[in-house]
Sequence to fold (834 residues):
Amino acid sequence: MKSLVLVKQVPSADSPFRLNSSGTWIEEGNLTFGLNDYDRYALEALLKLKDAGKVAEVVALTVGPERAATVLRTCLATGADRAIHVKDAALEGSDPLSLAKVIKAAIQGEGFSLIMAGLQADDDNYGQIGPLLARLLDRPSATAAMGLELRDGTTVRVEREMENNRLLVVDLTLPAVITVQTGINEPRYASLKGIMAAKKKEIRTVALKDLGLDAAEVGGRAARLRTVRLASPPKGKGAEILKGPADEIARELVKRIREKTGVI
Amino acid sequence: MARPAAAAGAAPLRSFMKSLFNGHLEADLVFPYPRQDAEAKETLGLLLESFRGWARQNLDGGAIDRSGQFPAHVVKGLKELGMMGMTIPEEYGGAGLPITSYCATATIVGAHLGIGSKGVVLYGSAEQKKRFLPAVARGDLLAAYALTEPTSGSDAASLKTRAVWDAARQVWVMSGGKRYITNGGVAGLFTVFARTEVDGKDRISAFIVTRDLPGVSTGKEEEKLGLKGSSTTDLYLEKVPVPKENLLGEPGRGFKYAMEILNDGRVSLAAGTVGGAKEMIDQAVKYARERRQFERPIAEFEMIRGKIAEMMTGTYAAESMVYLTTGLAERGDVDYSIESALSKIFSSENAWRVINHAVQIAGGNGFIKEYPYERYLRDCRINMIFEGTNEILRLFVTLAGVHTLGEELKKVGRALKDPISQIGVLSEFAVKKIRQAVSDEQLPDIQPPLAKTAARAAHYAEALSVTAEKALRAHGKGIVEREFVQERLAEAAGDLYALIACLARANDRIRKEGAEAARRDILLTRTFGNAAWRRIRRWLYQVEKNQDDNLAKVSDLAYEQGGYGADLVP
Ligand SMILES: Cc1cc2nc3c(=O)[nH]c(=O)nc-3n(C[C@H](O)[C@H](O)[C@H](O)COP(=O)(O)OP(=O)(O)OC[C@H]3O[C@@H](n4cnc5c(N)ncnc54)[C@H](O)[C@@H]3O)c2cc1C
Fold:
């Protein structure tokens, strides 16, 4: 069974974030980048299946600029077998639908049975790629997977995370697209050996024209969703500071948490 | 990596700092600033990313410090990641990364790769490498470097451990004791230096001593000020039969090996201290911006700004030196012993200053164990002591630096006694002096934003060699006893090397990416330069005008009184 993991390079959380001059995104100059955290879990889920002999091949795919190749190398070093890098200047400013179309074109003919991705990207939080791709492929999808089990060659059982700590268990007919929640497993780290071995693995780079796509249909120019502004929310009035002796504060806090969430 | 040792007997290796002491700015050695080869850089980037992610979850420096123990799961994790084999050649199961890569993770694997197994990598026979390195690379066999003894520290050549050849058993019988051996309690392989008889002469040789040999044992774990997670013990050698296959390299060359291993060790150590300083800067900046007093973040106060600025510039300079030096090391055709000593001195003292500032910025919290500052302060103190104390290294810098100068002066001295037959030598020297007087040698291709700073550097490079030469003429061989002088020349040399490293690095960035992209490098280099050239000027001035006599008298006073002295009490 062939499997695919969709990955994205995102700014590391400890980078200094500053708005760019047009106020629509963050300035890239000072950022350091890394693999989107959710994607680590998606990759690990597939590597586990591969270790168990249930998946024959794990392929990593990203759409992004030149620098994004690094996350593919991270995937290869961690255990993926090969990688596909869709890279085209025209893709800058793509909306999620465009990206899903591009991914669909890039995996045409590959015959992936299991396609995984992170629930969302740490930077833009759209959380759309997985479901959109499933729709375009006319295949089933499940989001926020907290558990995953290949039943046989034709179905996969997914435990989806719901509110209030509940799980919704669904069976999907393969091929299927699944996005995972963090915490589904414990992602492994690339070892030096893996890093050295990754140098011999293939990264295929493809541009729009290789996919038979046109900048009029997909990419920045074709975007039907545009970022207007990136801003900090106005200072909220909702915050309340509890005053008084520590034990009283603690009691009040427990009471409110209980009322609001039912967790405690 | 080609090694200086491999080139022994060939033409003398070039040395940037030796030439500088000699009045030559061999700019081609440092310009352009060395860049890591792209593939090694990426490999290292991936490894570091992996390591950091792993460390965030698994490595708790505070807990290690409190318990004084390096947890087994951490060792296991380091092994699995492959950290134990970073610099071991690929054919023996390591990654064969260049020294630059190792430096970036120096603090992590410390003595194991830095000095413990280095001897086998550098001087081991093919058999020895095959026998030991794969296990070393996997981390199954940890390594240690055993030079120091109870009565032989800085004066390492006075070591007493002895290995006597037993022809009947075909083994070296080794007896003695080593002190303060890092990894002592956990290592399976010790690189041990011992006296031997070679062709009737008393010489130091290097041996691979494995823990399983009869007569090998280690002492209790020392209780230390810092680095509590590391193992430090005595190593006892009681009539240990060391197989002849365990002799490392050529007999009698052990001391040279011991020093060469430390050459690499020192750059790695320097790199480790740069890493520590950077982490402390991050913490201090965060703290200063969050902590409010007088209704403002303390970051806004100028005395805090001053500290942060000093932390930044010093660390930039230290980092520039380290990677310039590893660049020199990787060329394989230069002697970088002075540069690595200077990097170690400068970076270890910078880290100490930086961490001290961070403690101060954190106020009372800086003193409290709940915060990381006090641990960093304790952990970094050792760097000024081991792998050659900073005093010993200062002596080394100056004496190695003026050595060739001395050779040249000797030639001139001979020439002056017999001017006619030696006219060639004399005129060469005269020409050099005249050219020096007429035009300062300059750094090449300097970009406008750095022109003034570069001119200062060139000027003081000249001044260093002139002052060194004067000192040498004044004291002759006696300079060996004039430590005040040696210290000042070493200080000047250190600041100068640091400044040239900053210039090379910033200049390279301007050339490749333009002045705008390089604006941070330019600011840091200029700021460092402004402080550095003033310090250099003062050090050189004091070589001649000083109050050394008073300093000597005051120390005598203390020695005579056996301390501060009761009489001084008012
Ligand atoms: C935690 C730790 C780990 C260590 N790990 C190792 C290891 O793995 N392997 C190993 O072989 N050793 C190791 N050492 C030993 C270390 O390298 C020595 O302690 C160090 O070289 C200094 O030697 P010493 O302690 O004998 O001090 P001394 O040589 O007695 O020096 C005492 C003081 O006198 C100064 N001094 C000495 N001679 C002169 C001089 N000519 N001019 C001016 N000042 C001078 C020194 O700079 C120092 O300030 C370790 C030590 C520690 C504390």
